[in-house]
Amino acid sequence: MKYLPISIIAFLCLVTVTPGFAIDAPRIVPRLNSVQMPINEVYARYKKYFSDPSTSHFQLVSADARTHTIVAKQSGIDGGSWGNWAFCKAGPVQMIFKYQDGTATVTVKLEKTTRKSTLVSVSADFQGLYALGANQDTIACTSKFVLEDNILAVSGAAGAK
Asked: In CATH, what number is assigned to the domain containing residue 83?
């Protein structure tokens, strides 16, 4: 057998190249739960929570009553909270960098399921600022879902699905 059939060569090339195109899991994954309350009550509860500095450290970015979507942001997150909320995958150089600050942008989306039931979706986007001397780098981080579960609890949800 002097030459390998083309199908075997194509197969070997495919097996060799495919791992380079593997799809990563999404970085931002929403947590969902159903709440036994009308959508307008749940919306009002979240809007108040994110607007009142005595109940949260978030700043309300937007609140759309028509789509029942609320976006809020928190920065200046302490290292302990950050370590509980997010995991930051750093490159080899950044591994020696030290956490300086973090920002969490939370999106709450509500969907009416029945007259007295609402589906709550909470997602968080984490951006960590890491530094070593004068060098700084912002890293997109992955949630550990603790923050999302805490925010779900604001609506009266007993846990995440």
From this structure: 3.30.530
